[in-house]
């Protein structure tokens, strides 16, 4: 579940806290929204440096488990509001996308 991911990786819950019980099935890293819409598998954790409001719409369309913003990037208030409205967990980490993927893989081995 996303909430376990938050606890284990020390992720900041920026928005969409009511979706923390979502289950995740994998990880996808990309910043090109059209590519993500075509490739993201339902239930995936989406890691992107994009922070504008459109990421929430893409996450909904692709049925992402959550969105993680790496490297402590600032997130637009409209994006946070939309994530809250739609129940898409919007998380932030100081780690890079690569570091996050490695830690998520390691965490998945422990489950």
N→C terminal distance = 10 Å
- Which CATH architecture? 3-Layer(aba) Sandwich
Biggest sheet details: 5 strands, mixed
The CATH homologous superfamily: HprK N-terminal domain-like
What sort of overall outline do the alpha carbons produce when their principal axes are compared?
globular
Multimerization status: single chain
Strands ordered across the widest β-sheet = 1-5-4-3-2
Structural class label:
alpha/beta
| Sequence stretches where pLDDT stays below 50 over 5 or more residues | none
Helix content: 40-55%
Proportion of residues in β-strands: 15-25%
In N-to-C order, the SSE pattern is HEEHEHEHEH
CATH topology: Udp-n-acetylmuramoylalanyl-d-glutamate--2,6- Diaminopimelate Ligase, Chain: A, domain 1
Number of strands: 5
> What integer value in Å does the Rg equal?
12 Å
Number of domains: 1
By CATH reckoning, the class would read: Alpha Beta
Domain DRTGG: 5-106
InterPro entries: DRTGG (IPR010766), Ser_kin/Pase_Hpr-like_N_sf (IPR028979)
Protein name: AraC family transcriptional regulator
């Amino acid at each position: 579940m996303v909430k376990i991911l938050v606890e284990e990786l020390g992720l900041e819950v920026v928005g969409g806290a009511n979706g923390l019980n979502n289950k995740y099935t994998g990880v996808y890293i990309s910043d090109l929204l059209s590519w993500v819409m075509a490739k993201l598998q339902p239930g995936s954790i989406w890691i992107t440096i994009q922070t504008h409001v459109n990421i929430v719409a893409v996450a909904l369309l692709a049925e992402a488990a959550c969105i993680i913003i790496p490297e402590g990037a600032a997130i637009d208030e409209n994006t946070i509001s939309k994530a809250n409205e739609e129940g898409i967990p919007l998380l932030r980490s100081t780690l890079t996308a690569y570091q996050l993927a490695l830690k998520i893989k390691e965490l998945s081995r422990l489950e």
